[in-house]
């Protein structure tokens, strides 16, 4: 037997988060009965979403994408400037992790809904590298505190990071933490303001040479390393 959310996510049409919402809305039935989050199913069970069969699994796609500014990391088409409309991919595609609307740089994208949430949990422990431009000069004390850790971000302590000045108004930072708008809030704590923020790397996957709006397929080795991270966590 398999958990209902696992079965739905394997179709590639829905992420686990999305299937959770559909289950709560009673849109998913098993043998004619609305299911719950704890429902388990057998291969012979009839699963319907809004009265229609679950889509057949699509060919798996794993992409590196250079997100331009102004695009929102969501698959919800009701949101203006959403990722799905921008990419116009033939199947549903999901971002692993997020960049806020104003930020640019590397996103990992996939239509493999069964691994989106595990990858997001694994991504939180991976190195993520950024280059940042600020409105005011970058102070030595700000860089030192970022390296030391301990700044409060929405009630949570920022972990130690690697940070270095690359110019009067620019710095490079490598995080293993993923607090909401973390870099922007750390800069604000020192009376500074982020003008531009670009993610250049997630673990072994690099942004270069992609230009804003461009994407490429991940290599077999890159995909294997991503999946090995999930297996290691489990």
How would the blueprint of this fold be written?
Elements: E1 2-3, H1 4-10, H2 16-24, E2 28-30, E3 33-34, E4 40-41, E5 47-49, E6 52-53, E7 62-67, H3 83-87, E8 94-96, E9 104-110, H4 113-123, E10 128-134, H5 140-148, E11 152-153, E12 156-157, E13 162-167, E14 170-175, H6 182-188, E15 194-202, E16 205-206, E17 215-217, H7 220-233
Helix pairs in contact: 4-7
Using brief descriptors, characterize the structure shown:
single chain, 234 residues, alpha+beta, Structural Genomics Hypothetical 15.5 Kd Protein In mrcA-pckA Intergenic Region, Chain A, Alpha-Beta Plaits, 3 domains, four-stranded antiparallel β-sheet, 17 strands, elongated
Would you mind describing this structure in some detail?
With about 230 residues, this protein is α+β, with helices and mostly antiparallel strands. It folds into 3 domains: about 1-55, RNA-binding S4 domain (Structural Genomics Hypothetical 15.5 Kd Protein In mrcA-pckA Intergenic Region, Chain A), CATH 3.10.290; about 60-125 and about 210-234, 2-Layer Sandwich (Alpha-Beta Plaits), CATH 3.30.70; about 130-200, Alpha-L RNA-binding motif (Alpha-Beta Plaits, 2-Layer Sandwich), CATH 3.30.70. It is built from 7 helices and 17 strands. Strands 7, 8, 9, 10, 13, 14, 15, 16 and 17 form a 9-stranded mixed β-sheet that branches. Helix 4 packs across helix 7. The longest helix is centred in the last third of the chain and has 14 residues, at about 220-234. The chain is elongated. The two termini are about 20 Å apart. The model has no long low-confidence stretch (mean pLDDT about 90).
